[in-house]
Write a structure and sequence with these properties.
two-stranded antiparallel ribbon, 9 helices, 223 residues, globular
């Protein structure tokens, strides 16, 4: 892994965490004054409207909230710059372009895998790579049966988060009828709770990504 190539992803992760913390803090402070907002982009726009124009907020609180919102806007602008750099890398890197053939792996995730993953020869098979990312569910025994629970928090956090997000998007597309699932994914969605299905799909995406890095070629959707 090239340290120079990976730093943009580490920096992006940091700014994403800062943005999340700022949004949560702003939402919490507004709740203290009776303004309750859910998560989501639409709610963020309404929060900004309250902060900028609502005269019912105490002036001191409004000033602090405006300052926090300015920090939030700076984070969003910085993320935009990082994403431009990452998308350029995804276009310029052959492995990254191949990885984007996998449903759920967009330019950011593809470029992150290309930059952060070790030489694919490090792993004997795709399952080992998925375990390195941290997408292997922890086993637990219940009544003599082996069951899989939550995933390990060990592994490559940036790639794990991006793959989970990508898998979540694919599951959402399937549920809204925007894409047809493979037979494997349809079976998983039928048998498993949503989050376990998402983790299973992210695990499969990691294995496919390893195979592409190891053997070349692009992903072909099974019939």
């Amino acid at each position: 892994m090239s340290q120079a190539a990976s730093i943009v992803f580490r920096a992006r992760d940091l700014v994403v965490r800062q943005k999340t913390q700022l949004l949560n803090a702003i939402r919490s402070h507004l709740a203290e004054f009776g303004y309750i907002f859910p998560q989501g982009a639409a709610a963020s726009a309404k929060m900004q409207e309250v902060i900028e124009s609502d005269d019912d907020l105490p002036p001191a609180a409004q000033g602090i909230l405006r300052s926090l919102w300015q920090h939030l806007s700076s984070c969003e602008a910085q993320l935009g710059e990082f994403d431009k750099e990452i998308q350029k890398r995804a276009r310029d890197d052959l492995d990254a372009r191949r990885l984007t053939s996998v449903p759920g792996i967009g330019p950011v995730t593809a470029a992150a895998i290309a930059a952060l993953a070790p030489d694919p020869a490090t792993f004997r098979k795709g399952r080992d790579f998925a375990a390195w990312v941290g997408l292997t569910p922890l086993e637990r025994s219940t009544g003599g049966k082996q069951r899989f629970g939550r995933i390990s928090k060990m592994g490559e956090r940036t790639l794990r988060r991006l793959l989970i997000m990508g898998a979540s998007a694919v599951v959402s597309w399937v549920r809204r009828g925007k894409i047809n699932p493979s037979a494997w994914l349809a079976s998983i969605l039928h048998r498993k709770p949503p989050m376990l299905a998402i983790v299973a799909l992210a695990n499969k995406m990691a294995r496919v990504a390893w195979a592409i890095l190891k053997h070349g070629g692009s992903y072909m959707q099974p019939a």
